[in-house]
Amino acid sequence: MSLLQVIEVSHSYNSKKLFKSKDTSNKVLHNISFSIEEGTCLGLLGTSGAGKSTLGKVILGIQRPQQGQVLFQGYDIYNADKITKSKIRRDLQVVFQDSYSSVNPRMTAERIISEPLENYEKLTLIEKRKTVISLLERVGLNEKDLKKYPNQFSGGQLQRINIARAIALKPKLIVLDESVSSLDMVTQALILELLSELKDDFGLSYLFITHDIKAAFSISDKIGVLEKGELIERYDSKDQFFKSQHPAIKRMRDSILAEHPRDRSINRNSSLT
Amino acid sequence: MIASLSVLVKSQKVIVICSLMLCTLLFISAFAPWLAPNDPTLVNFAHKLQGPSLNYPLGTDHLGRCTFSRILFGARVSLGFATLIFISSLTIGLIIGLIAGYKGGWVDQLLMRFADGVMAFPDLLLVLGLVGIWGAGLKQVVLALIFVQWVYYARVIRGVVLSLKEQNYITAAKISGSSQWKIMKKHIIPNVLPPLAVIGTLEMGWAIMHLSSMSFLGLGVQPPIPEWGAMIHEGKSYIRTDPLLMVYPGLMIMLVVVTFNLLGESLSERFGIKRR
Lengths: 273, 276
What we know:
The complex is a heterodimer.
Chain A: E1 4-13, E2 26-36, E3 41-46, H1 52-60, E4 67-72, E5 75-76, H2 82-91, E6 92-95, H3 109-120, H4 125-138, H5 155-167, E7 173-177, H6 185-202, E8 205-210, H7 213-219, E9 222-227, E10 230-235, H8 238-243, H9 247-254
Parallel strand pairs in A: 3-8, 3-9, 6-7, 7-8
Antiparallel strand pairs in A: 1-2, 1-4, 4-5, 9-10
Helix pairs in contact in A: 3-4, 3-5, 4-5, 5-6
Chain B: H1 2-11, H2 13-30, H3 32-35, H4 67-103, H5 105-120, H6 123-134, H7 138-165, H8 168-175, H9 180-216, H10 228-235, H11 244-271
Helix pairs in contact in B: 1-2, 2-4, 2-11, 4-5, 4-7, 4-9, 5-7, 6-7, 7-9, 8-9, 9-10, 9-11, 10-11
């Protein structure tokens, strides 16, 4: 059985207006089905507005889709009973793109990371602090950072704190919603490295949502491409992606800059038109 | 410690001065019985309308009562009831603002349309109307002022909650398994408090002024309780012979209201929070 199964999910945002009866709904997801196996990483590529983040929210259980089901370990996460729901909640965590807005500016690193622990585990103060310190060390920070506030960290460090919070409960699946997109290239590489280490250590599975093709390939086992709310293609390897003839994928592929300016063709925009 | 204090005094002059002034006023109202030289309600016709003397530092009024003592005791009534109005309307506004902002939907619509309805009336007119219905008296005036004032708190808090709700850390808290109540307590209320302190300071001045105006009209504090607005009311018959009877309480009201407003303005500038 797959860890996560998404079955024919469709969703649209309705803009409710008091004096407008006309249907102004805006279809974001259309008939999406895929599954994630335990211990693997599915990369989800898509341009802005393709519905990636909405899909992430649907999987996290905070945006009920209008149609379709999300099964986590065989349980429908939107129609489970309370106890199952809270168990699923524990196994399903997230790291967002914007590390600064993902943490309460009034809380220290210690309080940020201990929040999920307080909700699920009954630890004494000393045990809790120990756990937080070991989590901090696991993501490459140290005890000194315990009492620091978010504005004292860099973006990369803060993203490490977000990761520490996500792994605090030893979840099964982490949704990485553009988690490295707002970081510089070097930090990106370091965070990706950390993520793949954690994946092996804890047996985690990832749903890696991104628009960055290189980042997606560096960590994912499988790749799916989302375009205008539809899952258009799926690949098991990098080569398949580069051989695909789908126009949307061609566009994406052409937008990758070659490493050396010499190799960048001047008319590479021609395929856009 | 002293160095950082002097930096604070230099950079936040207005805030420091106003806070000191308020502390003095609080001290005066707390210790009025020990500071006042005479009983503020003791009538003594033998000494009526006297000028300043050692016994009566600011003279006496038309019933021979010590003006200075009445001003000290008046601070108690004015500040005390203004604080009561402030705390009550803040609590109501906080609860309603939190519910409206967090729940959204028809609950929000209902509460906010009601608040709009209250705000549509000029403040003083609504208070006068309510007091007209309920009858004159301190209790009624305080209730009417609370009724008018909570809407401003509710509005501001709702706005703050709405913007907070979109923050990722609220979503992250939900995903960490925090209950609604925990999210409120840990993430929303602490972030609502700073703007609340600013509006609160500004609204304190408003409450004191309106309480005094109601008393001046004879609707609020009833004699013989000393209150600044009521003192102006009593002194106005003697404006030709003893204008100072009105000037002293008037100056006190001005001082307090100006202090609160200056403090509120500089706090809101400091924290970048807009009023209303």
